[in-house]
Amino acid sequence: QVQPVESGGGSVQAGGSLKLSCVRSDNSACMAWFRQAPGKEREGVAAISGGYSTYYNASVKGRFTISQDNAKNTLYLQMNSLKPDDTATYYCATTPVCRWGFVLQPSGYSYWGQGTQVTVSS
Predict the structure, then answer these.
(1) CB 22 within 8 A of CB 74
(2) Which long-range contacts (CB under 8 A, 24 or more apart) does 100-104 make?
(3) How many C-beta neighbours within 10 Å does residue 50 have?
(4) Pairing state of beta strands 116-121 and 88-95?
(5) CA-CA distance, 91 to 108, in Å (whole number)?
(6) What is the mean pLDDT of residues 104-118?
(7) Neighbours of 64 (CB within 10 A)
(8) How would you classify the pairing of strands 10-13 and 30-36?
(9) Dist. CA 99–CA 121, nearest whole Å
(10) Out of 22, 32, 89, 98, which could bridge 115 as a Cys pair, Cβ 3.0 to 4.6 Å?
(11) Rounded to whole angstroms, how far apart are CA atoms 109 and 7?
């Protein structure tokens, strides 16, 4: 298993959009995006299992969309209507076996990317 690699972070104004990408080495059973702001714990943002079941943190539901392209071994996070509170380092995480009940918990994942910074200004 090769470490996932994220890209697509950047700086935007509130209300703007960004799309994050994560290239991983295989089609893991569960994949997710997490984020961590300075001084805060890492939190689950969105997860996808079996290629179609999706899970979202309540704070991003309706604004963010997680998806995957198996042909490209790539996981995406489309982020719309961004808010300053979305500012954080975003991490891609994968696991070969889903741990039900932990799909939005860091302990449910085995492999982590290095992270990509997202900054939203007001």
Answers:
(1) yes
(2) 103/30, 103/32, 103/44, 103/47, 103/49, 103/55, 104/32, 104/43, 104/44, 104/45, 104/46, 104/47, 104/55, 104/57
(3) 9
(4) antiparallel
(5) 14
(6) 95
(7) 22
(8) unpaired
(9) 36
(10) 89
(11) 19
The amino acid occupying position 121 is: S
Which of 12, 25, 46 is closest to 121 using CA atoms? 12
Per-residue pLDDT reduced to its tens digit, 67-97: 999 888 999 999 999 999 999 999 999 998 8
Instruction: Work out the angle at residue 107's Cα, subtended by the Cα atoms of residues 103 and 110, and round it to the nearest 5 degrees.
Output: 90
In whole angstroms, what is the distance from residue 14 CA to residue 68 CA? Answer: 26
pLDDT tens profile 7-55: 999 999 999 999 999 998 876 889 999 999 999 999 999 999 987 899 9
Binned at pLDDT 50, 70 and 90, residue 108 comes out as: very high
b/e sequence 10-29, b meaning 16+ C-beta within 10 Å: eebeeeeebebbbebeeebe
pLDDT at position 25: 81
